[in-house]
């Protein structure tokens, strides 16, 4: 079984070699629960997108900005619930983070859809 550290190193190497500056690996897919490890190179952005019914982000390495109605700056070791609105992510430096989402709940696609 891989450790977060070894998987994070592999993903960052992959992100650095990818033209889009990012790489991801789905670690857990159990019913509606998803845990995905993502690596972004400095300056890489994830365009604004809808929020799943529930989500959190845990920064393992680096520094990120999560932008929605407000901008939250997150650095190594910080965890935050993601906004229930459209949001984007920008890596201020090479970063690896764990994204936990709950998806596919009956009658729910996104908090944005309910508003």
Automatic annotation (TrEMBL):
This is Cupin. It comes from Kocuria soli.
């Amino acid at each position: 079984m891989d450790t977060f550290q070894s998987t994070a190193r592999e993903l960052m190497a992959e992100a650095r070699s990818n033209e889009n500056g990012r790489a991801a690996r789905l670690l857990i897919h159990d019913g509606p629960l998803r845990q995905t490890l993502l690596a972004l190179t400095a300056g890489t952005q994830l365009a604004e997108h809808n929020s799943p019914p529930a989500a959190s982000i845990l920064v393992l390495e680096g520094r990120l900005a999560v932008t929605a109605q407000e901008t939250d700056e997150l650095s190594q070791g910080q965890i935050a619930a993601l906004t229930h609105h459209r949001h984007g992510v920008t890596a201020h430096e090479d970063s690896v983070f764990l994204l936990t989402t709950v998806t596919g709940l009956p009658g729910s696609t996104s908090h944005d859809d309910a508003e």
